[in-house]
Sequence to fold (710 residues):
Amino acid sequence: MSDITADGLVTGSPTRIADVVAKSLVKRRAKEKRFRMYGIAAVAIGIGFVLLMFGTILNKGLPAFWQSTFRLDVTFDAAALNLPTRPVREEGQSMAAFQQTLYEWQNQVTMANWNGLIQTSLQKYLPDAKPASRLRALVSSGERFRLRDMVLADPNLVGQTVTVDLLADANVDVWLKGNIDRDLADNQYLLSPDQRAWSDQLYEQGVIRMAFATSLFTNVDSRSSPASAGLLGAMIGSLFMMLIVILVAVPIGVLAAIYLEEFAPKNRLTDLIEVNINNLAAVPSIVFGLLGAAVFINWMKLPLSAPIVGGLVLTLMTLPTIIIATRAALKAVPPSIRQAALGLGASRSQSVFHHVLPLARPGILTATIIGVAQALGETAPLLLIGMSAFVANVATTPFEQSTALPVQIYLWQANEARNFFEARTSAAIILLLAMMMMLNAFALVLRRRFERRW
Amino acid sequence: MSVQTKPKVVAKDVNVYYGDKHALKNVSVNIPERAVTAFIGPSGCGKSTFLRCFNRMNDTVDGARVVGSIQIDDQDIYDPDLDPVQLRARVGMVFQKPNPFPKSIFENVAYGPRIHGLAHAKPDMEEIVVSSLRKAGLFEEVKDRLHESGTGLSGGQQQRLCIARAIAVSPEVILMDEPCSALDPIATARIEELIAELRENFTIVIVTHSMQQAARVSQRTAFFHLGILVEEGTTDDIFTNPQEKRTQDYITGRFG
Ligand SMILES: Nc1ncnc2c1ncn2[C@@H]1O[C@H](COP(=O)(O)OP(=O)(O)O)[C@@H](O)[C@H]1O
Ligand SMILES: [Mg+2]
Fold:
């Protein structure tokens, strides 16, 4: 054994000291091992939660990308539809007069008995189904307009038989996918017992199949026929807002950061600005919504529910993030590079634009794209500027009413047709996540491109 | 060695403050033309601070304030009308740690001439780059990889690249702040040889913490202590016959 003096020092021959070191080594190794275990456990828990989240969302949402769809041979029976022929412009007829007759014709086409047409087509497969109107109700109510639009686009279809894909009613989809228990009491279903049986039969006959839900991408939200509710309006709204954030927040944020970091004198005022920017980054996003409502809508009289307002609010929200991250990227460039340039007689802006910015560019890009991705997923401020309103149009400019993806998710998850919209909501979430991942992948690619390692 | 010609740089009563800290006190010194002047002294005595006065790099340091006068060829470099950017084209600088730009060797050397508009045609630029690399004794080693990264060179090569970069704009004065402190002895010897060659065309001021280096490369030496210029003279005098006790203590290794 080695001797330990009163003040705790180990003394003795070298071998004794080696003994003591060896002993302490065992302890140190155990400690290191324990720490590594904690680390692995922490990572495992984190990954576990991520997998759980993705698992549930994918599990729920992926089936919604396939939707119960009828494939029917529809005969556009001239007698049943009883349509006048499409007017042609007569010699000497004024354009206005022709428009008038055309308009009347379109009205008549709309009023035609499209439901009857669907009903007749369906009865070919289930001749015994009575009453036939209940059978026809298996097709989503909005789908009759699809037939109308076909004829409006091509009047020659009348008299022909065409194979048409029509979305099934949301309740049929829920029933066929097993999203509702099959042995509940009759009064708990929105479909009658015979409708449920017909659905099953048609599914077996192959008249109803699960087809890719293009409507999810090509339709706007719909209240009257949930089966055809889509995300196009929300995606366009989000796209407009992202564009506004990129066009407004990115240049302002990056330039502000460059000025503050590279040019501004370091004094009380710039310190104050810095503190305030940091504070702004921590302000809850809903506050930005209130600010946006007060400034952009009440004061500047910009339209309610419009992507322009949403984009500006998200710009305000993202600016601090972009400024802080850009400054961090600039700070990471070694000062020796600036000294080298200044020492050669480069001006301050030459040193910044020739040397500092190229080196900071990957960091700035990542910062920017993360800021934009954050804005893309933001919901709370959008609710306050009216973007949760039901909008059935696709916005063609940022000044028209629109929803946004995250808001659409919020609206759908609260829809009363729960059984149907639960999966649809998850599908929307998948889409939003996919857009974010695409943005992040884009950031990664840009980073690789610009990160020329010397 | 006595230098009778008119001095290239004249510093008079230079004081430097960092905020409240008085880092350099009433320093006056003459720097002879086409010779090497060494600044020696213990760490923190203000050598680098003083060196940075000659190309106004202190302007870029937050909180630094320079009082006094420095003239290069009778021109006051602290004249408010004088653009420090213009000054730095005349007074080049080599830093303690080699700091090539993360660009090609060629681009490193070409950068100065390009921003000052010294060469417009490509062959002119190539000539400047090649001759600068030659003068810095680096050309033979890198002639086959001029378009490869400057940061891929060894430490000593990087420092010679920085010297080539500095002389590419044909400065009159070259300031070197401990240019060898990050280098091994062989690379150091190469730089010292180079300094001896460059002396014929440039006025060189070098800060060094190595007294042997000062003795080897310089003709004049200035010894600083606690922000004060203690003694200044020919290198021979300072090392063989110092007038001040503090100088003697320092060069004999009694403190520092
Ligand atoms: N940027 C600065 N801010 C504040 N004090 C500084 C700064 N640079 C140098 N100093 C101080 O000035 C004194 C001289 O420093 P310096 O010139 O770097 O000394 P040397 O190069 O001789 O080691 C030191 O006390 C140092 O702490
Ligand atoms: Mg120093």
